[in-house]
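This section describes the prediction task in plain terms. A model, or a person checking by hand, is given the sequence of a single protein chain and must write out its three-dimensional structure as a string of tokens. No templates, partner chains or ligands are provided. The sample shown here is typical of the held-out split.
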Amino acid sequence: MPPMRLLKCDPEETLTFVNIPNNSTPSKILRLTNQHKTNVAFKVKTTAPKAYLVRPSFGTLKPGESQEIQIILQPQQGDMSKDANNHRFLVQAVAIPNNEQVPRESWASFPKDEVQEHRLGVAVHQEEAAAPEPRASSIPTDAPQNLKEEYDKLVQYTLMLEKEKKRLEAELNDLKGHASSGGEGFSKLTLIIAVMMAFLASYSAQFFSALSFALTLLLWALRLAEARVMLLTSGTAGRDTHRWHSKACLIKGRLLAFYHFAVLSTGMRL
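The expected answer:
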């Protein structure tokens, strides 16, 4: 049979497969280009058909047209590179008048002097797996120093909170002391004013406006005293609550007594 002139084969001599450990089916591309002025039918054959998968294995190319043939090396037992080095591929081509596909069984009808052939060898290279890169430690080298700094910050923050707590407790005690003294003084002052106004009003009953004003002041004083006592007793507990409640009852009783006395003395009621 004459040598190949109808097609250009790339590669021209050897199909080299690279066997990667994680890839059990290495593959190679064979590129065929029609360099004749007419259509060319081609067929790809191998001496080890069970070891390879060829897609497509035959076809027709127009003038100047190219076709990529994918050749996949199937997994094999034993030394793949040693066995594959004995394999061969054969590319056959024949000029045809049209672009119709030529079935496999029709190739036997072509005269042998019209069918051109090109042989290629096979080589398998074993590629070793790359050594894994050492993983960098996720713990920084200055971790002990950073931990010490964070610990010192926490200690300072704790001391600051303790100092702030003592300051707030002192302010709370001062507020309780002022509230206690102020509440008692306010109650006595209210009582004195109310008594004086009621006493003076009882001797000037002929003046209705003065009497009405005095009784009104007395009633307001009673209500203010009750509100003040409820405010002071709401923030106390235990014995303090009992003491404030006793004082509240005493002040309220005195104010009510003076109020009724004024009403009975004048014979008037608001």
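For orientation: The radius of gyration is 57 Å.
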